[in-house]
Model the fold of this input.
Amino acid sequence: MVAVVKRIAISGYYGFGNSGDEAVLQSILLALREEGERRGVTVEPVVLSADPALTSEMYGVRAAHRMKPAEIAKTIRDCDGLISGGGSLLQDATGVMTIPYYLSVLKLAQLLGKPTFVYAQGIGPVNRRLFDPLIRSVFRRCRYISVRDPESAELLRRIGVGKERIEVVPDPVMGLPLGSGERKTGAPYAGATAENGAPVVGVSVRYWNPDRSELDGIARVLRLLCEARSVKIRFLPFHWPSDAEASQHVIAGLGEFAASAEIVRDAAHPQQMLAEVGRCDLLIGMRLHSLIYAASQEVPLVGISYDPKIDQFLHRLNMQPAGSVAALVPEKVAEQAAALLDGRDQWRERTGPLIARLKQEAHRPAQQIIGYFRP
Done:
């Protein structure tokens, strides 16, 4: 088989130090490489990043600055196609300019005659109806569209993108493997049990409510858990430094149990953080990708919702959030956490087939994209 070389630009929320988004990028890069090797296509990625030097160093790929129009235009002009995703790119909750930015990158590629692909995106919320015709126009010209949940597919359908053109797939991070130097220790799925035999509870928090009530509620959850049993608490910051500061806020609320808590500080690479999550016996998480990491490593998880994307992911595991930033009952969350610690084997038996399916389907977008270039 004669090898085909294709240079593909990748647009997303990369280079900002967010472990979840960096995991998305790593997952896409690995999936494209694996599928390319299988089909005889050598993929040369060029990532649009807020920190091109860091992205190049971390992943060994070329990168261009995502906010320099001349660099973006040259990158796309020199490429054979453009991938937009994954992550929650087309939403206007974080700012009015987010949707126009990502659509403009796609539109530029289309104007330059490049095939465009939407890779496992979470669509929405789209609160401003003025964006609907823009999304509809750009997406109708994409060669392939995949979204990470049925709710995103339904939103696109309402906007006017044909349902038959949309493939629902898992978040790319479900397909992220552990790094070659990483492994879970001990018995299957119980690798992080502390030296004193206590289970390890991973915690991923972020700032959300102005009054920090969600963090105070989680501190109360952890205190209740510590009062009922001996546990080791490990905070896993997915976005530095803000998540580390949020973790410190929770630790300050643990009172006499603060000594049982620590913050993981040396997991900059997504696969390092994946390994850290895999060493936990339970994960209590606000960050979406902390929950996805846990599921991929078959670590029982408790989700605290601040965004519909949390609920949507949990639904794929036939689960519901234990609480939300707007309505968190610490006693209820602590009860669910304790039940999962006691019933880890039953949870894995119940969710294992669903997780296996999600992992298998996570490579579908890469298969479709490589198939476009090498039918």
Notes: The CA atoms of residues 267 and 273 lie 5 Å apart. Residues 4-169 form a domain with the Rossmann fold fold (CATH 3.40.50.2000). The first strand starts at residue 4 and ends at 11.
